[in-house]
From TrEMBL, chain A:
TM spans (from-to): none
Listed PROSITE patterns: NI_HGENASE_L_1
Binding site for Mg(2+): E45, V321
Keywords annotated in UniProt: Iron, Magnesium, Metal-binding, Nickel, Oxidoreductase
One Pfam entry name: NiFeSe_Hases
Protein name: Nickel-dependent hydrogenase large subunit
Native source species: Candidatus Fermentithermobacillus carboniphilus
Positions contributing to Fe cation binding: C67, C357
UniProt entry tagged with the keyword S-adenosyl-L-methionine: no
Superkingdom field: Bacteria
Domain NADH-quinone oxidoreductase subunit D: 118-286, 287-360
Obligatory cofactor(s): Ni(2+); Fe cation
């Protein structure tokens, strides 16, 4: 049979965001894949330069709809480092608390999507149904379900009350039971298991060479977790286990993520039992002294890096974001070779991709003439209409 | 007048209008059960009709790479094949439009025709997703067709006839004796029917997240509505056939019995749909040849032993 080119994306039901994957397939076997990023670049880094430090926090929060807290914490840590601000202990605990709640809802979201990608929509509906428990808890504390607006430079904006702690405790009991059930389903339901086992496999060496981060790296047996390796917020005081697995396939990824949910539940329990008293924020200056800093954060999808430079003004000179998906996307290209067409969506979903967070500006050169041009928005849309 | 009566039979009852509406009703039953099993509310009873009406009012598009004649002709033929198959089914006290010894084979033939038409639909739509989906549909056809036919032949063996109405009479008379014997064949036929109708876990040919909609990817509007109606009609024929051969309640309950046994069949199909992840196409073939076919053969052997 001749080789067929199957385009997955920019628009495709398996992708929740536009990104382009072009597969050369021979029957049901993938021969090669060409990944093209750049369909949802939003220019947030540049836009941050036109905003004050505090305004930039709100924009940074909107980089990702799932790990919104990760990005703001990462950004605030960098700014606090430049300005030499000491964040109060209670604020650091609350940052960790939200980080873990975010991890739970992100991993449950992944589990549901993984079910959907392999056609197991019942798991999708169940996982997202129970994800509401943690989203409701987030809403009752912060007032919002996904963009919590908790972080500010110098601490957090809202306190966690006794009432919140009680409600959260009840939510945790419920979740713990449900997560046990999902772990059982994911590891023992024959059809679901057969769709994950041995699929999207990378070895430990490949995981290191390709620079993978987060659950993708941990599922291949690479023992990395910034919460332990480079503690931030309150993680230096909190006992927890780093979950790793050996398989390197998607079953291992599921094991790692489900294990991390259980671990996060324990961390949250520790935090609400040991929440220190004190102020939740210190006042940050309007102008941040000149300097630069790089901050790292273990987001649910892996290591998030923010680089911030200040010129001493009330606006950042440069903000640079490296979201975890960019580090993991190479693992997708690697494990795609020789994969079956049926496994394409679950392999892409396996790294829990977040494309709009990751996207870079792409410059397309006209290869035939070597000419580079700069287009205005009006010219670009006129050209798009002409090619339709 | 004969001509008008025939036309009425073809177009209204038990032909086109009845099959299509009953199919849409069964679609609602399926969607509602599926939704309730997933903690969802599910659609109101009239939703399938609204969906169909909406499709008929949508923009009419023929892709540049598609063959325009085949693109239009095949969906119509698909619906015609499925509706014609139903004409050969007796139900609810009515005999079929044209009963003759051997009509079981004709119904199975029309069901097979639908699958082959689906292959052509995907092949001529000029889309890579359509082609991959078509190839998968044919591969899957090789997987479930044999167990489906073998399990449908089990009641035929018990009754010693190829005529659906005869099988039905014999099965209804000896229901308490024959139903336990045919349970195995009933299970196999439900699973194979699930494969025939391309539903989870056997929906690889239409796998949404992999190949968009498989053979139907390029379709929209009226033509898609025709294919969807044909799929619903196939559901009616499949459920009706199993109901006639295995669960002939309508000998006792009349029309209500037919509805009840069809809903029972659809309930079984919905539970299957809600409990599994999608199988890869090679796993479908493997499961079919490793389990379904041996079990259907076993079912036949049981029937032969009981009949003596």
């Amino acid at each position: 049979m001749p080789e067929i080119e199957i385009p997955v994306g920019p628009q495709h039901p398996a992708l929740k965001e536009p990104e382009s994957f072009r597969f050369e397939v021979d029957g049901e076997i993938v021969k090669s894949v060409d990944i093209r990023l750049g369909y949802v670049h939003r220019g947030i880094e540049k836009a941050c330069q036109d905003r004050t430090w505090v305004q930039a926090v709100y924009l940074i929060e909107r980089i990702c709809g799932i790990c919104s807290h990760s990005h703001t914490t990462c950004f605030c840590q960098a700014v606090e480092e430049i300005a030499g601000i000491e964040v109060p202990r209670r604020a650091r605990f609350i940052r960790s608390l939200f980080g873990e709640m975010e991890r739970i809802h992100s991993h449950l979201l992944w589990l549901g999507l993984a079910g959907h990608e392999v056609g197991f929509d019942s798991l999708f509906m169940y996982a997202w149904h129970d994800r509401e428990i943690i989203l409701d808890a987030l809403e009752s504390i912060s007032g919002n379900r996904v963009n919590y607006g908790m972080n500010t430079i110098g601490g957090v904006r809202r306190d966690v009350t006794e009432k919140d702690v009680d409600e959260l405790g009840r939510a945790l009991d419920l979740l713990e039971e449900r997560v046990k059930y999902y772990t059982d389903v994911a590891l023992n339901e024959a059809t679901f298991r057969s769709r994950l086992e041995g699929v999207g496999k990378i070895t430990r060496e490949q995981a290191i060479d390709l620079g993978t981060v987060g659950p993708t790296a941990r599922s291949a047996g690479v023992d990395v977790d910034l919460r332990r390796d480079d503690p931030y917020a309150a993680y230096d005081e909190i006992p927890f286990r780093v979950i790793t697995a050996d398989g390197g396939d998607l079953l291992a990824a599921a094991v790692v993520r489900l294990g991390e949910i259980e671990e996060s539940l324990k961390i949250i329990r520790y935090i609400i039992e040991n929440l220190p008293d004190g102020p939740i924020a210190v006042k940050a200056p309007r102008r941040i002294p000149a300097g630069e800093a790089c901050s790292r954060y273990e987001a649910p999808r892996g290591e998030d890096i923010h680089y911030v430079r200040s010129g001493g003004g009330d606006k950042p000179l440069r903000v640079k974001v490296r979201a975890p998906t960019l580090a993991n996307i190479n693992a997708v290209a690697q494990s795609m070779r020789g994969a079956r067409v049926a496994d394409i969506p679950i392999i892409i979903a396996g790294i829990d991709p977040c494309f709009s967070c990751t996207d870079r500006m792409v410059r397309l050169d006209d290869v035939s003439s070597g000419r580079t041009e700069v287009l205005t928005w009006a010219q670009l849309s006129a050209r798009c209409r002409a090619s339709r | 007048m004969d001509f008008l009566a025939d036309l009425f039979k073809l177009l209204v009852f038990p032909g086109f209008l009845f099959v299509v509406n009953f199919g849409l009703f069964l679609e609602w039953v399926d969607r509602k059960i599926y939704a309730r099993m997933q903690h969802r509310v599910g659609p109101p009873w009239y939703q399938p009709w609204l969906d169909t009406i909406k499709l008929f009012t949508k923009e009419d598009v023929i892709p540049e790479k598609a063959n325009p004649f085949m693109f239009t002709f095949l969906p119509v033929l698909d619906l015609a094949a499925a509706v014609t198959a139903f004409l050969y089914l007796p139900f609810g006290g009515f005999s079929s439009v044209n009963p003759f010894p051997g009509d079981l084979v004709v119904v199975v033939f029309f069901l097979t025709l639908s699958t082959l038409l689906l292959f052509l639909i995907g092949w001529y739509s000029g889309s890579p997703f359509g082609r991959v989906g078509s190839l998968r549909a044919v591969t899957q056809f090789l997987a479930y067709e044999v167990p489906l036919v073998l399990s449908l032949l089990t009641p035929a063996l018990l009754a010693g006839s190829w005529s659906i109405s005869t099988i039905k009479i014999v099965m209804a008379q000896n229901l308490s004796r024959f139903l336990p014997v045919t349970l195995l064949a009933l299970a196999v036929s439900l699973l194979s029917l699930q494969g025939k109708l391309l539903r989870v876990p056997f929906d690889a040919p239409e796998a949404e997240t992999e190949i968009v909609a498989g053979p139907l990817t390029e379709y929209t509007g009226r033509r898609l509505a025709f294919i969807r109606l044909a799929e619903r009609a196939e559901l009616v024929v499949g459920a009706g056939l199993i109901s006639n051969l295995f669960l002939p309640f309508d000998k006792v309950l009349g029309m209500l019995g037919f509805f009840v046994s069809c809903v029972v069949v659809v309930f079984g199909l919905s539970v299957l749909r809600a409990s599994f992840a999608r199988l890869r196409i090679e796993d479908t073939t493997l499961i079919s040849w490793k389990y379904l076919i041996p079990f259907s053969a076993l079912g036949m052997a049981l029937a032969i032993m009981v009949r003596g």
